[in-house]
TrEMBL record:
Signal peptide location: none
A single GO cellular-component term on record: axoneme
PANTHER family to which the protein is assigned, alphabetical: CILIA- AND FLAGELLA-ASSOCIATED PROTEIN 36, PHOSPHODIESTERASE HL
Gene3D superfamilies: ADP-ribosylation factor-like 2-binding protein, domain
Matches recorded under Pfam families: ARL2_Bind_BART (PF11527)
Keyword Cytoplasm listed: yes
Keyword Coiled coil appears in the UniProt entry: yes
Annotated coiled-coil segments of the chain: 109-140
Record-stated family: Belongs to the CFAP36 family.
Protein's name in the database: Cilia- and flagella-associated protein 36
Subcellular localization(s) per the UniProt record: Cell projection, Cilium; Cytoplasm
Organism: Antrostomus carolinensis (Chuck-will's-widow)
Domain BART: 1-83
Keywords: Cell projection, Cilium, Coiled coil, Cytoplasm
Length: 141
């Protein structure tokens, strides 16, 4: 459901609320199971160890329940990962991607690649000439 558009849809809010309830329930059940009360969890959650990059990555799903922007970012990322996985499976199954998945993509022919090289070179030379001209004007002033 999630896309990378800046504006969020109403359906995102409903899914986010369901996600919050699910994470809260799972966390409560887990803490009961391992015998940790909420206070000790909050202590551990705010300790320096919990602030490391690795811990943040692990705790991202819990943190996302408290921060909609993080939740949306996580869902967009998961959506992209699922799309890439589907493409990989299609390619493995068929040996090649169907035309509908390659048309309009960033796959360049040799001619297009050569044109891009030429264009980059022209832009580089143009930039050099512009910088030389600007330097000449500064020295004249």
């Amino acid at each position: 459901v999630f896309d990378d558009e800046e504006e969020s849809k109403l359906s995102y809010t409903e899914i986010y609320q369901e996600y919050q309830a699910l994470v809260e329930k799972l966390l409560e059940d887990y803490l009961k199971e391992v015998g940790i009360n909420e206070e000790k969890f909050q202590e551990a959650f705010s300790s320096p160890l919990a602030k490391t990059h690795t811990s943040q990555a692990i705790l991202q799903t819990v943190l996302a329940a408290e921060d909609f922007r993080l939740f949306k970012k996580m869902m967009v990322q998961k959506n992209i990962e699922m799309q890439l996985q589907a493409i990989r499976i299609i390619k493995e199954t068929n040996g090649v991607l169907p035309d509908c998945l390659t048309e309009g993509s960033d796959v360049f022919s040799e001619i297009e690649q050569e044109e891009m090289k030429i264009l980059r070179e022209v832009l580089r030379k143009s930039k050099e000439e512009y910088e030389i001209e600007q330097e000449r004007k500064r020295t004249e002033e």
